[in-house]
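QA checklist item 7 of 12: single-chain prediction sanity check.
[x] sequence parsed
[x] length recorded as 461
[x] structure emitted
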Amino acid sequence: MSLFFFDYTDYYWKQDLCWGSVEGNKLNITEFEVLKLKKKIWLWNHYATDMYKNKGGRHYWFAENLINKEYEATVFCANTYHNNSEFIDTGRKKYATENLNGIPFVFVKTSTALGNGLDRVKNMGLFYWNLFSVAKAFEKENGKPDVIVASSVHPLTMVAGIQIAKKMNVPCICEIRDLWPEAIFSFNKAKENSILGKILVTGEHWIYKKADALIFTKEGDTDYIKEKKWDIKQGGDIKLDKAHYINNGVDVEAFNKSVNEKVIKDEDLESGKFNVVYVGAIRPVNNVGNILDAAKLLKGDKDIQFLIYGDGIQKEMLEKRVVDEGLDNVKIKGFVNKQYIPYILSKSSVNILNYSQTQYNWARGNSSNKLFEYMASGKPIISTVKMGYSIIEKYKCGMELENSTPEELVKAIVDIKKMPEHEYRLLGTNAKSGAKDFDYTVLTQKLINVIDTVMEENKND
């Protein structure tokens, strides 16, 4: 009967099936049956309430796949929905819990926030403040986590993650899904050289320094640290090897299932015409008016129609343009439930990834959810901006425009329409194949690799 040492830090054993002696923190075991303890991962995203409602999204799919791999994953989010008066009642408590399809959700009490004014600031502040007592209460009932993954958009979630993780003596991974405050400066909501701007940049630097690991959703976002000269190589205090890249993606299996099961009746989708489809927000950064400008140039081609699905502050203006300019080749469909998007995209001929060239910095890549849905649909993609770290170029699944003019967009649409069948199909095949690299089973394994790294480093500290 062999004798060996066993580190029991991450394990427990059935007492009736093992015997031996304890020496220090080692078990001297001769006969045993051990069961590996599940690692507890807390995923914090203020706006994951929408993922609860839609039964899908980044942290929903992370949690789902982590649980499938024998982790205990819990999603923490606000009890309010973004830009919606609906909320989840927490009663007299600061949080409520719910289990959805095997995924535990913790809803942190906040206040309703409509728009981007003071109500939203209050909503963010309450989420940050209440996380401290909620984390303490949840830990008391369920045990402390092994890792906290604190995700933006707004930085207060990451600040709370770092502070609470330190109190619990566990590592915190900060996930930056949008570069705040750079995005704020891009939209002219604050000036970088203003007092507010300097405070925001200082806070951002603090987050990057204090986080045990950083996850960026765009491949080129690590360049931002270099541009700021915050990396150690340039005399800063941030190690670049703690920065990781995990893009947004798509649940390929769920997407394909929706194509077959979530069918929407829409005669335009079944018309047999060459369907140029845009799905997404209708706001200045998406520059959807450019699509109407292109449609105007193609009014004479009765075989091409433009189908626009989505809502936003510019929707009514565009609807008025369609009527005033007699654009009978454009149909603005308005809001559509996310569950029907896969079917709609399956009926497209080409999908438009439409953005403003000037209102965002595209040099570092793209993490748009719809890019990966477009790819999963197996249809060619036209991007109205040429991006750094281009996924479209890497997978050869479409075209990117240099200047984003209506004339250039028209040429791209017509070129794809006139392509030989085998070339057209190859673009779609490449798109569908590329989507597999961004399936959440693949992305979750990347997250696990980061989790394992920070846990090992924390153990050694």
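[x] summary fact logged: The CA atoms of residues 379 and 425 lie 8 Å apart.
[ ] second reviewer sign-off
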